[in-house]
From TrEMBL:
<keyword id="KW-0132">Cell division</keyword>
<keyword id="KW-0131">Cell cycle</keyword>
<comment type="similarity">
    <text>Belongs to the ScpB family.</text>
</comment>
<protein>
    <recommendedName>
        <fullName>Segregation and condensation protein B</fullName>
    </recommendedName>
</protein>
<dbReference type="GO" id="GO:0006260">
    <property type="term" value="P:DNA replication"/>
</dbReference>
<dbReference type="GO" id="GO:0005737">
    <property type="term" value="C:cytoplasm"/>
</dbReference>
<dbReference type="InterPro" id="IPR036390">
    <property type="entry name" value="WH_DNA-bd_sf"/>
</dbReference>
<comment type="function">
    <text>Participates in chromosomal partition during cell division. May act via the formation of a condensin-like complex containing Smc and ScpA that pull DNA away from mid-cell into both cell halves.</text>
</comment>
<comment type="subunit">
    <text>Homodimer. Homodimerization may be required to stabilize the binding of ScpA to the Smc head domains. Component of a cohesin-like complex composed of ScpA, ScpB and the Smc homodimer, in which ScpA and ScpB bind to the head domain of Smc. The presence of the three proteins is required for the association of the complex with DNA.</text>
</comment>
<keyword id="KW-0159">Chromosome partition</keyword>
<dbReference type="GO" id="GO:0051301">
    <property type="term" value="P:cell division"/>
</dbReference>
<dbReference type="InterPro" id="IPR005234">
    <property type="entry name" value="ScpB_csome_segregation"/>
</dbReference>
<dbReference type="InterPro" id="IPR036388">
    <property type="entry name" value="WH-like_DNA-bd_sf"/>
</dbReference>
<dbReference type="GO" id="GO:0051304">
    <property type="term" value="P:chromosome separation"/>
</dbReference>
<dbReference type="Pfam" id="PF04079">
    <property type="entry name" value="SMC_ScpB"/>
</dbReference>
<keyword id="KW-0963">Cytoplasm</keyword>
Length: 197
């Protein structure tokens, strides 16, 4: 099959599916190995990067998806109903960060790290399709395990979880100090309240 024909087939697959398609599935259709398939798609990605194109191909965790460019958002809003704007509160961002860095993780583990119940936050993140159930822990009660979804990668502009920012040791030490100070403040407040009784 000629390269132009192969690219046309890949383009048709990605356009038709609308969601991400694993590279091994594409490779089978075009009868190429995965390494060659990735090279062909990388070449297509470069072609779509031009300013004269409104669509692009993005890589998502060893899969590819065809979608519109973010720069087209304002133009697309004029022809479609305005999409619901999702705003992530500090609580949702905190919970999402824990899940992203610690996945797969149970709700009890999330609550242990946050120090508060997290049912609402986890359910909201599932509603927003940023988090999903990824299995069950092999432990008594077989609690559900949660992880980030493909939509999480797409919305935060990452190809895989390896693109998550690395927290530097200095920042980690700073967070730990802040958390310890916060706990100490809470203990002092409780002690003061008891003295006033």
């Amino acid at each position: 099959m000629q390269l132009s024909k192969i690219e046309a087939v890949i383009e048709a697959i990605l356009f038709t599916m609308g969601t991400s398609v694993p590279v091994d599935s594409i490779a089978k259709v075009i009868e190429q190995d995965e390494k060659t398939t990735k090279k062909i798609i990388k070449n297509m990605i470069d072609k779509y990067q031009g300013e004269d194109r409104g669509i692009q191909i993005i890589e998502l965790d060893n899969a590819y998806q065809m979608c519109t460019k973010a720069a087209m958002y304002d133009d697309l809003r004029k022809i479609t109903a305005q999409p619901k704007k999702v705003v992530l509160s500090d609580i949702l961002l905190e919970t999402l960060s824990i899940i992203a860095y610690k996945q797969p993780i149970t709700k009890a583990e999330i609550e242990h790290i946050r120090g508060v119940r997290s049912d609402h936050a986890v359910n909201k993140l599932i509603d927003y399709d940023l988090v999903c159930e990824v299995g069950r822990m092999d432990a008594p009660g077989r609690p559900l395990l949660f992880g980030t979804s493909e939509a999480f990668l797409r919305n935060f502009g990452m190809q895989s979880l390896e693109d998550l920012p690395i927290i530097k040791d200095e920042e980690l030490a700073k967070f730990k100090t802040e958390a310890e100070e916060e706990v100490q403040l809470e203990i002092n407040d409780v002690t003061t309240e008891k003295k006033n009784l």
